[in-house]
């Protein structure tokens, strides 16, 4: 696990590092931790998909933590962001940049451990993948990269964050790969959506974070809306 800590107070960086090392020792995990004294210092060296987890203070000289997080999200939508700061005032702004959690200083190790446990579960889920055959090549696709899938003329079209993967297989066989995972729902005939990638659920469609719209079967709209609401509620409960 690669972790960045962005905080202009050295003592806070060291305490958080100590918590991380303790958690990793208790749970048999490996972690590589890098410290940054400012948002600007971090962004000068930042490359997308470098870090699994980033801790940010909000009150820093120069770029504050919210501004730094906004710049991170312009390049990387996958890393987990956790604010570690002295005030609850910016919590709503934090979740607007899809913060995973918001820790208010001073917090004890037990509070930190609970957050890290949910991080572990999320990162484990993100590391899962399916394997399909594209032409003559076997391709591994991480579940977290799938936005939605559809089906036409015996081909599955897997819309990922980077490209569309086309594979020849029956929809029943393909759906058996995805539907056991709670974030996936079959919302229309031969169409599956990753609910983690939904921006808005409107009257007739899922509107994805990519801006694409995926229709919902008219006869299933009530059921799908409830399924999505339950999934979002469960996610919030895991973070609280």
From TrEMBL:
Residues carrying 4-aspartylphosphate: 57
Keyword Phosphoprotein among UniProt keywords: yes
Transmembrane segments: none
HTH LytTR-type domain: residues covered: 130-230
Pfam families attached to this UniProt entry: LytTR, Response_reg
Coiled coil: none
Name of the protein: Stage 0 sporulation protein A homolog
Annotated function: May play the central regulatory role in sporulation. It may be an element of the effector pathway responsible for the activation of sporulation genes in response to nutritional stress. Spo0A may act in concert with spo0H (a sigma factor) to control the expression of some genes that are critical to the sporulation process.
Domain annotation Response regulatory: ranges: 2-120
Organism whose genome encodes this protein: Eubacterium callanderi
GO molecular function, a single term: phosphorelay response regulator activity
Keyword Transcription: no
Family matches, as CDD domains: REC (cd00156)
């Amino acid at each position: 696990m690669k972790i960045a800590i962005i905080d202009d107070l050295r003592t806070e960086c060291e305490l958080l590092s100590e918590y991380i090392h303790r958690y990793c020792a208790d749970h048999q995990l490996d972690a590589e931790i890098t410290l940054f004294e400012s948002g600007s210092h971090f962004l000068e060296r930042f490359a997308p998909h470098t870090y699994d987890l980033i801790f940010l203070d909000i009150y820093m000289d120069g770029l504050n933590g919210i501004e730094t997080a906004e710049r991170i999200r312009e390049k990387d939508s996958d890393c987990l962001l956790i604010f570690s700061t002295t005030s609850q005032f910016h919590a709503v702004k934090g979740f607007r940049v899809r913060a995973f959690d918001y820790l208010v200083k001073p917090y004890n190790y037990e509070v930190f451990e609970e957050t890290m446990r949910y991080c572990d579960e999320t990162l484990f889920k993100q590391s899962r993948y399916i394997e399909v055959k594209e032409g003559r090549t076997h391709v591994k696709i991480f579940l977290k990269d799938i936005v939605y899938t559809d089906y036409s003329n015996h081909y599955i079209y897997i819309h990922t964050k980077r490209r569309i993967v086309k594979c020849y297989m029956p929809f029943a066989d393909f759906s058996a790969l995805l539907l056991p995972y709670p974030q996936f729902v079959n919302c229309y005939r031969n169409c599956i959506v990753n609910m983690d990638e939904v921006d808005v659920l409107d009257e007739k469609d899922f509107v994805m974070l990519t801006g694409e719209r995926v229709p919902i079967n008219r006869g299933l709209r009530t059921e799908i809306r409830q399924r999505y609401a339950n999934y979002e509620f469960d996610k919030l409960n895991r973070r609280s």
